[in-house]
Design a protein that fits this description.
By secondary structure, the protein is mainly alpha-helical. The protein is built from six helices and no strands. The protein has two domains: 38 residues, no CATH class; 131 residues. It is rod-shaped and about 130 Å long.
Length: 183
């Protein structure tokens, strides 16, 4: 049951003091969920993951692996192995393919860095996008809570007013009865 434009305009004016046309997308979403009596909260990670492409997920995975201790330790072991192999073992037999100063190793490291850096930047950009999405979803939840509190205040105020009106009418009718009895 989708909310009508008239209902959204009424709620926007009543709770937000805005015209329906001036609402932000988050505000429209909150008001629609309120009128349909549906929760507005969503998990930002799930929403972001649902919208992610294969390349984005791959960059996250590369950044996750490249930023781990196991990668650093494993890469260090490979580098030390490369240097030992080309300095001591293969050099002893005259077969070192990349002797000191390890020019080929430097080329390989530069290539890895040149490829890995933009991929990590893509992952960081995606994380920033996830953070903005999480902030937007948090705003929606906070707005919904605030509007529901305002709605509850209205209901309580109305109930109190109705009760006071009933008490006043009983008092007035009691006074009239007392006046008639006194006459």
């Amino acid at each position: 049951m989708a909310a009508t434009k008239k209902t959204l305009d009424h709620l926007a004016t009543r709770f937000l003091g805005k015209d329906g046309a001036d609402l932000e997308p988050e505000e429209v979403n909150v008001l629609e969920h309120m009128t349909d009596h549906r929760p507005v909260s969503r998990d930002a990670a799930d929403v972001a993951d649902d919208a992610s492409t294969y390349g984005q997920r791959l960059s996250d995975r590369v950044a996750e692996i490249g930023g781990s201790w196991s990668f650093i330790i494993g890469f260090s072991v490979i580098l030390l192995g490369w240097m030992l192999l080309n300095t001591d073992v293969l050099a002893h037999f005259g077969m070192a393919f990349d002797p000191y100063p390890y020019i080929f190793l430097n080329l390989m490291l530069s290539t890895v860095a040149a490829i890995q850096a933009p991929i990590i930047m893509m992952s960081q950009n995606r994380q920033a996008s996830k953070d903005r999405l999480a902030a937007s979803l948090d705003f929606e939840v906070n707005l919904r809570a605030e509007l529901e509190i305002m709605r509850l205040h209205e209901k309580i105020d109305l109930a109190i007013t109705e009760r006071l009106d009933r008490i006043l009418s009983k008092l007035e009718s009691g006074e009239r009865l007392a006046e008639k009895a006194a006459d």
